[in-house]
Amino acid sequence: MSSPSANATKIRYEPVTDKDTEEILRLLKTFFFKDEPLNTYLDLGECKELELYSTKCIKEKCSFKAVNSRNEIVGVFLNGLIHRPKNGEEPVKLADGCEHKKFRKIMGLMDFIDTKFNLFDLYPDVDVVLDGKILSVDSNYRGMGISVELTNCTIEYMKENNIPLMHVLCSSHFSARVMEKLDFEEVFRMPYTDYLDSNGQQVLCPEHPHEACRTLVKRIIPEASK
To answer: CA nearest 116: which of 194, 221, 36?
Structure first.
């Protein structure tokens, strides 16, 4: 896409719907999938399992898009919901059944983090969390505050639906910095040097400054509590 014209910079923000899936995938393939440091390190390439993993949360209807005056999606915040597990309920192992060998390493990292950190133990009063999965903006539209507005849309949704906590797992140093600028607080950090295979070898070695997976959260005051 060429640089946006003055007319195209008039951005509106709307909920994501199922019919947006293919256009959102094109946006992610062009920008997010190539920018994400673990994908880059693994040279992930075409991965249908990554595409499905990234877009399956759309059906939960809590994601938001930025649309220009040509009705093109130029930014997206894909979100899902995490519910407190029932007593005795075991977490789903994301790496189980993952056929793409490289993507399985990323899913294995997510599974490993689940064994080290439980968000609901940290927040015993919370039963549902909004999970900010992917925040991506067309590079031609960066620096316009789109990430902030997409996050604000998400927070308004949380207030309206009495969801008290937002959670973001950042594999990238840069995405974590964006969240910190939006007043998110780090509650967990795992250096990539701590994720080892059965032979004691580091599994994922993204380039500096991507040194750790970080969990950041933000408390929200629901409308009903005001």
So the answer is: 194
User: What DSSP string describes 133-150?
Assistant: EEEEE-GGGTTSSHHHHH
Tokens 């991507």 -> residue: 210
Chain CA centroid to CA 28, Å? 12
pLDDT of residue 223: 59
Q: How far apart are CA 218 and CA 155, in angstroms?
A: 9
- Give the SS3 label for residue 151: helix
Token pair listed for 36 = 């994400």
Q: Apex CA 223: angle with CA 217 and CA 225, to 5°?
A: 85
Three-class DSSP category at 123: coil
Q: In whole angstroms, how large is the CA radius of gyration of the chain?
A: 18
Residue 50, helix vs strand vs coil: helix
Q: What is the pTM of this model?
A: 0.91
pLDDT in tens, 53-91: 999 999 999 999 999 999 999 999 999 999 999 988 887
Would the pLDDT of 36 be above 90? yes
Residues 134-172 as b/e (b if ≥16 CB within 10 A, e otherwise) read: bbbbbebbeebebbebbbebbbebbbeeebbbbbbbbbb
- The DSSP result for 169-219, as a single string, is EESSHHHHHHHHHTT-EEEEEEEGGG-B-TTS-BS--PPTT--EEEEEEEE
